[in-house]
Each structure stands twice: as structure tokens, then as C-alpha cells.
Amino acid sequence: MARIPHETFDCAVGCSVEATLNLIGGKWKGVILYRLLAEQVLRFNELRRFLPNITQRMLTNQLRELERDGLVARKVYAEVPPKVEYRLTAHGQTLAPVIAALKQWGDAHIEDGTIKVPTEAG
């Protein structure tokens, strides 16, 4: 059964964590945000190259959600073939310390062996 997210976050301590995870949680959003922080501007296929295991549909959905939530801006150029670029909004850029902390924590725990990096075979 799918979990129904809160309409508002006027609840107890910890709700701010839940609200943040609703925006950036999931398998792909954090990685998309990290890549946009690192590269500044990326086209759709450039993002796909950075995320070889994501489907086109999933990437499209994740980008739409990030755009809807005001974290990513999408710019469409009127040319053939169509050119679409993605970048973080000013609001999305405020996540830089959060994403950097996640990366730092992950790097430390991968290095000490407490996190196992998934392989394509397994």
C-alpha cells in the first residue's frame, strides 16, 4: 500500500526531515541534484549518461517532480532537434551543503567498508 504524504508539515519534531526527504528522497533525485550541482547545466541525455541505470521514463518523472518542487529549472530552446537544459534553481542550490554532507558521509563509510557499493552483476 502506497504511503500518503502529508499535505502540510505542521507536526512534531522530525517533520522537517520528512519534508526534506519528500523533496529529495528516492533512488535518483539525490544523484540528479548532485550532478546538477557539479556540472551546473546538463541536457537530458547528458544526465542519462551520468545515470546509466535509470530509464528514460524515470528520469523524466524525477526531473518533473524536481521542477514542480522548485528545485530544478527546465529551459527549452525552440530548435530542431529540440534542446532542453536543466539547472538548479536558487532554491535548489540551497541544498548544496545537504548533498555535500551526504556525499562526505557516503565516501567515509564506503571507504571503511560499512557501506557496500552495488555492482552491476549483483
UniProtKB/TrEMBL annotation:
Record-linked InterPro entries: HTH_HxlR, WH-like_DNA-bd_sf, WH_DNA-bd_sf
Gene Ontology MF, one: DNA binding
Signal peptide (residue range): none
Domain of life: Bacteria
Pfam families according to UniProt: HxlR
Stretches assigned to the HTH hxlR-type domain: 15-114
Name of the featured protein: Transcriptional regulator
Organism of derivation: Stutzerimonas kirkiae
